[in-house]
Amino acid sequence: MMKVVRGLRLIVLAGSLAAGLGVVRGQAVAAATHETAVPSGILTREQAAGFLPDKVFYRGQSATVQLRNSSGIGFAEGKLMLAAVVDTSGYSTAIAQKYQAYLITEVPLEFNGHVLMPGCYGFGFVAGDKMLVMDVGANLLFETPTAKDSELKRPNPLQIRADPANSGHYRLYLGRTYVVFSQAAGK
């Protein structure tokens, strides 16, 4: 009888430990998956890098994200727009010439009258002063004019700045070349 009681105590103890570990593990998982607070406004590269994946999918391959060359915007309700330069060395020359960076948005964006719905996209600034925006299959969605900012003191490979001419609008830069965009109205 003594062996049975000891055995039951061990089973109860083991069950209590397992239940306790399950609660602790559950709390750890909940803490790890708890949404990170999204800063409002333009994100630094460190803030943007905290939300971006290391690699992104585009045209049948994975491209490494250059987290040091990233930026983004925190919009209302904690929604994000993120952009980062990618390493396109594994892509064909025809794709690499057009695909220089990756854009992820949780809100509709407007680029010179073109609305870009939430999703993931490739983009690039090409000859002829144009920005090309493509879906993840490298299909062209739209092209829009770009401009040069000769007044920019320190151009980075990629950055986002407030557009001084329009409140609520931003400039997405690759070097000194930029395109103006905003959150799409009424969306």
Q: Compute the CA-based radius of gyration.
A: 24 Å
Helicity, as a percent range: 10-25%
Low-confidence stretches: 7-34
| Whole-number total of structural domains | 2
What would you call the shape? globular
Report the sheet-strand fraction.
Answer: 35-45%
Question: How confident overall, as mean pLDDT?
Answer: 86
* Largest sheet: number of strands, sense, barrel closure: 8 strands, antiparallel
Structural class: alpha+beta
Quantity of strands, as a count: 14
Give helix and strand order, one letter per element, not per position: HEHEEEHEEEEEEEEEE
Structure characterization notes:
It is a single chain. The protein folds into 2 domains: 1-34; 41-183, no CATH class. The chain is built from 3 helices and 14 strands. The chain has helices at 2-33, 45-49, 93-98, and strands spanning 41-43, 55-58, 61-74, 80-87, 101-105, 109-111, 114-116, 119-126, 130-134, 140-145, 147-148, 159-162, 169-174, 177-183. The strands form 2 sheets. Strands 1, 2, 3, 4, 5, 8, 9 and 10 form an 8-stranded antiparallel beta sheet that branches. Strands 6, 7, 11, 12, 13 and 14 form a 6-stranded antiparallel beta sheet that branches. The chain is globular. It starts with a helix and ends with a strand.
Concise structural overview:
The chain is of the alpha+beta class.
Task: Please describe the structure with a list of short key phrases separated by commas or semicolons.
single chain; 187 residues; alpha+beta; 2 domains; 8-stranded antiparallel β-sheet; 6-stranded antiparallel β-sheet; 3 helices; 14 strands; globular
